[in-house]
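dude i think i finally got it to work??
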Amino acid sequence: MSSSVETGDLHTSGCSVSELVDFLDSISDDALSDRCDEDSRNNAIQVLSEIHQYLCRPSLDQAVLDALSFELPKAVAKFACVSDQCLEIVDSIVNQFVATCSPRDLIPIFCEALDVPRGMSKEPSYYASFLSGLSKVFLSIPRRHFEQVKEAIPVILSVLKAMTSELDGEDTDSEDLFVRAISIADSIQTVCGKLVGRQNEKLRALLGLFVLQIMSLLCISMREKLSNCLTLLSQLSHFLPYCGLSYLGLLTGCDVDTIIGFVLKECTEDGDDYMSCFPYVKHGASLAVICGHMSNVIAQSAEEDLTVLKDALQSNQTKRWQAVGMLKHIFSSANLPWELKKHTIDFLLWIMDGNLSRKCDDEVTDCPSYVPGLFAFLQAIEMVIMYTPDAVLRKKAFDCFKKVLADIPASPRFDILKALIANSNSSSMTAILLDCVREEMYVENCQSISVGHDALLQAEKSCQSSLFWSEGVLDLVELILRPPKGGPPTLPEDSDAVLSALNLYRFVLITESTGKTNKTGVLSKNNLNKAYNEWLLPLRTLVTGIKAENKTDYDQIVVDMVCAFNPVELVLYRCIELVEEKLKQKA
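look at this
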């Protein structure tokens, strides 16, 4: 082969390389087919050693090395899966190519080797040497640093993402890939140090996105073994201050938006497509802060003081809303472990504990812009409340839910609760949300009673004015007792929600009657007739029909179902009595 290249016989040299690759494939296949076969393993080690010795010959022509660099790295990489000793030799072979070949040529070669088609992922060891190779190649790039790194990063992240989804958190080979990915980040930082001005800024921004994405993938890969990766998380956190990423900026999303903007400006044609390789970058921004809250070592690595962060969030309601909007990414991810969600809830409770600065209604004109994020957060934490197997975490999640809800001004708070109820697919969760509405109304009613008619005190309470005592609350009751799809609710599936809706209606009816008010319109003749004829009587017909149907069925499941109707039936008949009494008074 060497003579073919030297004489310019490209066809013959190509055949020679192909024959060598076929030979190496046969050796690696034999070794991988039975890894307990010592002879096959020793044969693989010997072949790799001879390849390495050949490549290290001082007399070897550069043209030969260049010809081999296109195919040989992929062929020898397969041997890395045979044993640790084979992996070490493969590392040495790849390093030899890095030392002798053009960086501009090697980056696409290594990226092609890493870019295995979806569904055909190889073992982690196959990718390891190429990741280390890229970390060294980046240091040798003479110019157009951002462009070269930019082309390689999507492939690197794709490999890490594929390995994250396929392997469990106890796989040491998977951890080794992250170690090598961090070495790539180290190299990018070193390259940044050689650049100035705009070139430095945009490469640092790209490094920031890269680090945040790796942080997310690392947390996902560890599953429930998060303690195994604290050292790696600390190493990743070390890059944050260099990239201009502070905990406050990450948690509010401002710093993330800044670095995304830098990178997008350099991707004028394929900006959105390029950013698709960073799907977890906002998860990473939140995780960086939560991991710092978990471990002082990680916070110190990021050069952060959590007390300062807490003060900044407690003293600024807008920043708290922004932080809540970012943290939703942790709760909404099905891939992140419960342990991380628990730490996130602990962090939020820690932030919400104490004197929080709040704005009056006339100062919250910017609140609507944060409502979608707050709504998404509350929806995400509902998932924790409903699905966590840990009763303590469930209680903490609900406490966190209520504290975040209380931090929202009254008007959007009502709208958010209404939207959560309308979008709820769980009867139990709907019941909890309706109980939250009733609790809000109870507290407000108690406040109005204590204030009385004193105009001065009433003015002081103006910041707490709300929409809860309005016709909107009847819309919530109707949403459950007469669903938009028509007819009465589905029983027994919706029993919890129906019971809570009836209790809310009864509470409003009694409170308005006792206080001789009609803020909600519940006492108007039209609304009383509507509730009686469209909500309560059809529901009574449904409940009595189901009970009569199953009266003689003594199957335990049926008995339990009928017993579950008893509270519903009790509150239903009380509501009917109250409405009939009010209608008689109206007659």
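The chain is about 75% helix and 0% strand.
im so relieved honestly
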